[in-house]
Design a protein that fits this description.
197 residues, mainly alpha, Rna Polymerase Sigma Factor, Chain: A, Arc Repressor Mutant, subunit A, 2 domains, rod-shaped, ECF RNA polymerase sigma factor SigK
């Protein structure tokens, strides 16, 4: 079952002469040799469809492999009256590819929402009180008490409204490092200004 997807070799038309419907019937009965024939016939087509949707070669290879496993597992569900084997496999490939893109987008959205929550929480605890209760001179004095890196991170986030990720990009630093700088800097500001949370 661990067939590598033959991306470089093999073309969708290599098995046009063979009856893939008959091959599919054998695959549905668990015939591994028949699956090898089917795999060679479908893998390039499947990969091409997935790559057009996903647009990332490594992810496309992974999704194409998943599609071929689906073809093996779902072979008994194939109905020739509904269309050709190629059309059936292409439909599975397209659905899987769209699912991968949607899943990746959802993950990115969750990460962005989490970053926004972390950003808001940090400033709800410290920055909002700093802004409303303390004079700007005291803020400047306390900012001078931070390390240069903490001051840069806090200034970019607090005065310019950048997110953690944007601060990390602006300072060419890893995101976890920026989060640590911000947390430590805000704690020092809070202590310096006598803010109680």
């Amino acid at each position: 079952m661990n067939h590598p997807i033959p991306f470089a070799a093999g073309r969708p038309g290599d098995h046009v002469g063979s009856d893939l419907g008959e091959v599919m019937q054998k695959v549905s009965r668990g015939d591994k040799q028949a699956f090898s024939v089917l795999y060679d016939a479908l893998a390039p087509l499947v990969f091409g469809i997935v790559l057009k949707v996903v647009r990332d070669r490594a992810q496309s290879e992974e999704v194409a492999q998943e599609v071929m496993i689906d073809v093996w597992r779902q072979a008994a569900r194939f109905r020739p009256e509904a269309g050709s084997v190629r059309t059936w496999a292409a439909t599975i490939a397209h659905r899987r590819a769209v699912d991968r893109v949607r899943s990746a987008q959802a993950a990115a959205d969750r990460e962005q929402a989490q970053a926004a929550r972390e950003y808001a929480t940090a400033f709800d605890e410290v920055a909002e009180q700093v802004e409303t209760r303390l004079e700007s001179e005291q803020v400047r004095r306390c900012l001078r008490g931070l390390t240069g890196l903490q001051r840069q991170a806090v200034t970019l986030a607090y005065y310019q409204g950048l997110t953690y990720r944007e601060v990390a990009e602006a300072l060419s630093a890893p995101l976890p490092t920026i989060k640590t700088r911000m947390r430590d800097g805000l704690i020092r500001l809070r202590d310096c200004m006598g803010v109680t949370t």
